[in-house]
Each structure stands twice: as C-alpha cells, then as structure tokens.
Design brief:
mainly alpha; 10 helices
Amino acid sequence: MGDDYLEKHNNNNLYHKNCIQFAIDFQKTYLNPETVVVNILDSQRMKVIKENCERLKPIIETIIFLGKQNIALRGHRDDGNLITESIVNEGNFREILRFRIQAGDNRLENHLQKSNSKATYISHTIQNELIEVCKKEITLLILKEIIQAKSYRIATDGCTVMVSTIKGAVKKVQETAKNALYSPCNNHALNLSLSKCSTVQSVRNCVDTMREIISFLNVSA
C-alpha cells in the first residue's frame, strides 16, 4: 500500500478527519491561549466584576462617610436624576453624590449616566443593603479584636436601660460573656449628680463660678 492509499483512507474516514482537526485546534489553542473561549469568557467576567466594584466604590465611600459623621442619609425625597441640579433638598446621601459629580468625580458621573435606571445602586433599598454589609464588616472587626484580647469590659453610662439587673444591656451581654465586667462611666455619674443637685443654691452658684472661670480661660488662651 502506497501513500495514495493512506491519504485516501484518511480523507474518507470521518474519525481520522476529526482527529486531524482536533490536533490542529489543540495546536492553535496551545500557541494562542488567549483565543480559548473559556479564557475569553473568564477574562470578560473579571473585567465586568472590576468595573462593577469601581462603580460601587464612590457610593460606598459616601455611605461610610455619612456613618462616621453620624449624619442621616435620606431626606423627604430619594429619587430623581442626580446629574441635573435640583431645587429640592433630596437628602444628605444624594446631595453628597451630586456634590461629588460637580467636584469632578467622572467615574460616578459616567456610572449614573450610562447605567439603567434600575441599576444605579443608589436606591433606598440598596442603601440599606450596603449599610447592612458595612455593619457586618464592623461587627467582624470588633469580634476579631475581642477574640484576640485577653480581657475586656463593658463601659456604659448609668441609665436604666443599660444597667438594669433584669433587662439591661449589661445583663444581656453578661448572659453570654460570663467574664465580662461592667465598668460604669464616672463622667456620666458626675453629670447625673450635678443635675440632681441643681436645685441647691450653693451648688448652682459653684457651677456658675466654674463656668465663668472656664469662659475666662478660653478667652484668654
């Protein structure tokens, strides 16, 4: 049998044709891995994930900022176009986002301009979800510090809701953390004492004198 027979046999046999094609495809993907469909899809997926993270970043930063400053997020309105100026105060969260755009946050501006109205991630529902995520992260950090600490205490003021032996917060904590120690706040105790003594004339005179001294020192500084 000559070469013609082998070539004819290969051309007429589907199995051989498929094997040859598989070998050619393997060689192509081996030499050019970026053309593999799986790699292309995975690369595109990672790109989308990165872009989504970048879109969320200014929104999350704004929520964290408001939380750190103890500022409420929402006002009377919580919808509408952030790109255009509004004559109505739309709440701290939306107004800060608008301020960021006006200050040159192109990433946030592009996100709000190009995204579908249902995918802007600034609705009150998403705000609550992001706040919940932040809460979980803070809780995990606190728990990590507690686990690493050899000892810790419960520091609270002296109000009933905290120190009540029946339903107080300290009691609830100690039910789980048996070795937790309650440490009352001396400043709060002093404040309560002064408040109750304010009806005594001599105490009132003393407090007024201290205020005048403090005021004098502040002005003189």
